[in-house]
Amino acid sequence: MAQIPLLQLSDISLTFGGDPVFDALDLVVQERDRVALVGRNGSGKSTLMKVMAGLVEPDRGTRVVPPGTSVGYMEQEPDLSGFSTLGDFATSELEPGEMYKVERAGEGLKFDPDRPVDTASGGERRRAALAKLMAEAPDLMLLDEPTNHLDIEAIGWLENELKSTRAAFVLISHDRAFLNELTRATLWIDRGMTRRQEKGFRDFEAWRDKIWDEEDQARHKLDRKIKSEARWAVEGISARRKRNMGRVRALGDLRSERAAMIKRQGTAAMALDAGPKSGRKVIEAKGITKAYEGKLICRDFSLRVQRGDRVAFVGPNGVGKTTLLKMLMGEVQPDAGTVELGTNILPAVFDQARAKLDLDATLWDNLTGDPEMRVSGKADQIMVRGQPKHVVGYLKEFLFDERQARAPIRSLSGGERARLLLAKIMARESNLLVLDEPTNDLDVETLDLLQELLGDYDGTVLLVSHDRDFLDRVAATTIAMEGDGKVTAYAGGWSDYQAQKAEQAPEKAPEKQPAAQKPKGDKPKAQSKSGLSFTEKHRLEALPAEMERLEAEIAKLEELLADPELFTREPVKFKKATEALVQRQEKLMASEEEWLELEEKSEQA
Fold it and tell me: Would residue 254 count as lying in a domain?
C-alpha cells in the first residue's frame, strides 16, 4: 500500500518583486523523513519553510496536508505578543495534563517559563518556541535554525530528542555535526531550483561538487559549440543565405540557452590582514578569580596565550565565557589575580550581540560612519586594510548588492548581519581576533571560508562557539568552563577535549581527597611527566607536520617565482607570491624556534 505523504507541494511558484524565489517546485515529505534543508544565505530556505508551514501563500501551486496530520513550525523570530510569560506561550496549545512536557523541554533547553515576555532576550524567545514545538510533538516538525542561541549541552539534548522521535522533520541549521547526526535526506536550494538527494548532509558536499562539475562541463561544451557556429556564420553565411537560415536561428537558440544558465553565486571575498606582528606573548593571566552577581565565573585560573595560538572557550550559556574574554582583553578587571597584555596588540572583535551594528542605519552608513574606516573628504569610500575602497565595491565582495547598500540593517537576515560584521572586522589590520559566537546564522560555504582564513591568519584567535565541527577545525586549545568557577585547559578542539575528559574521569573516581585539600606545591593535573603542559605537549607533536606543510608551500612558491617571465607577464601574481613566500618563511622560522624551545623544555624535565 502506497504511503500517504505528510505534506505535498505541487507546482509552487513565488516571486518577491524580482527574480522568482521558486518556480514550478514540487516537494513531498513522507512519514519518518529526516531532511536537511540547505542553501546559501538569502537563497530562500526560510521562505520555503514558511510555504511548507502554510504561512506564505505562493503565487501559483498547491499545498496539501492530509486531514488529521499536524504540522509544527519553529521560526527564527517567534511572535509572543499577547502572552505574559514564556511559559504561557509555550503551553498555549497544550491540554492541562500535558504541561509537564514543556517543563521537561524547558530543562533540556534551559529556558525559564516564568520569564516575562517583555524582558526575554531573542535567544530565550527562540528556546521557548522550540520547547513549545517539542512539547506539542506534531507529525511533521519544521525547524528553522533551532541550534542558534543553544549551548552545546542543550544542542546535545535536542539532538537526542530528534534521534528518538517518531515524527518527520525538516531542518535548517549551520551546525554540521548536528546535521550529520540527524539527517537522512537533503533538500538543496540553489539559484531558484530545489533538488533532493536521499542521503543525509554528510554526503551533501560531494553531491554539490559533482553537480557543479557537470554544470561546468556542460557550459564549456556549449561555449565551444557557440564559438564554432559563430565562426561558420562569419565565414559562410553570405554564400548560403537562403539555405542556412535555420542554422543561424539555431545559433541564436544556443546563445539564448547560454544566457539562461544562471551563474553560481561566488563565495564572499573575505580576507584577513594580520598587520604588524604582536610580541611573542599576547596575554598572560595569573591566578585570576571573578564573581559576578553572586556567581563564580572562575577561580585561580591561569593562562598564557602566545602569538599564533587558537584558543576556544566552551561551556553552558551563562557560565561566563564572554566575561572571561573581557577579562583577558583588559576590559573587565578580575577580583583577584592579574592579566597582562603583550606588546603591539591590534585587536578586532566580533561581538555576539552585534552591538557594533546600528539596526536603523543603512549598510552604507554603518561602514562610512565608522571612525576607523572613514576616509577624510570621501563620503563614498572607506579604508580597507590601509587602502581606500568604494563602499559599494567592498560590500559586493561580501555578497551584498547595490540595492542592499541603502537598506537598513534590520532588513537583513541573521546570516547577512553576521557577514556585514565580518566585513567591518576584516577591513582593519589586526593581530588578535576575538570571535564571540561568529558561526551563528552563517551558511556552510561562508563557514568553510572563515575556517580557511583563520587557518592562514598569522595573528592570534580567541573564539567562543557552540559549533562542535567548527571548534574541531579551528581550535588548538580548548578552555572548558564547567560552572562554579572551574575552568580547565585542554589541548585540541571539541572532540579532543571530550576524549581527554573521558580519559581523566576514571582517574578521579578512586581519589579520596578533594582537590582543594591537596598541598599547594603539587603540580596541576594538566602537567605531563615530560614537564610540558597538555597544550604544550600537543603543540610539540603537531609542529613537525606544520613545518613540513610550510616547507612544501615554500617549495611551490619558489618554483613559481623561478619563472623569469612572471614579473612582466603577471606583476600582481608575482607580488602576491613574493609576499606569501616571505610570510611562510617567517612562519617556518617561528615554528622551528617554538619546536626547539618545547623540545628543550621536554628534555630538561
Answer: yes
266 φ/ψ angles, rounded to the nearest 5 degrees: -75, 175
**Element housing 420 (H / E):** helix 414-426
CA angle 272, 578, 277 (to 5 degrees): 45
* CATH code of 342's domain: 3.40.50.300
Residue 512 falls inside a structural domain? no
pTM beyond 0.85, yes or no: no
User: What pLDDT is recorded for position 17?
Assistant: 61
DSSP classification of residue 515? G
Residue 401: exposure state from Cβ atoms within 10 A (0-12, 13-18, ≥19): exposed
Same domain for 222 and 304, yes or no, is no
pLDDT tens column, 436-488: 888 777 777 778 888 888 888 888 999 999 999 899 989 999 999 988 999 99
331 Cβ neighbours under 8 A, 6+ residues apart:
none
In a domain, 273, yes or no: no
Instruction: Count the Cβ atoms, other than its own, within 10 Å of residue 507.
Output: 9
Beta pairing partners, 283:
305, 341
Residue 199 within any structural domain of the chain: yes
* CA neighbor of 35 nearest in space, from 134, 175, 182: 182
243 and 292 belong to one structural domain = no
pLDDT tens for each residue of 319-332 = 999 899 999 999 99
Q: Judge whether 533 and 605 are in contact, CB under 8 Å.
A: no
Cell of 332: 573587565
Q: How many residues does the chain have?
A: 605
Distance CA 191, CA 19 (A): 10
- Which set of grid coordinates corresponds to residue 232? 561558420
Q: Which domain holds residue 227?
A: 216-260
CA 104 to chain centre: 29
- Do 578 and 500 reside in the same domain of the chain? no
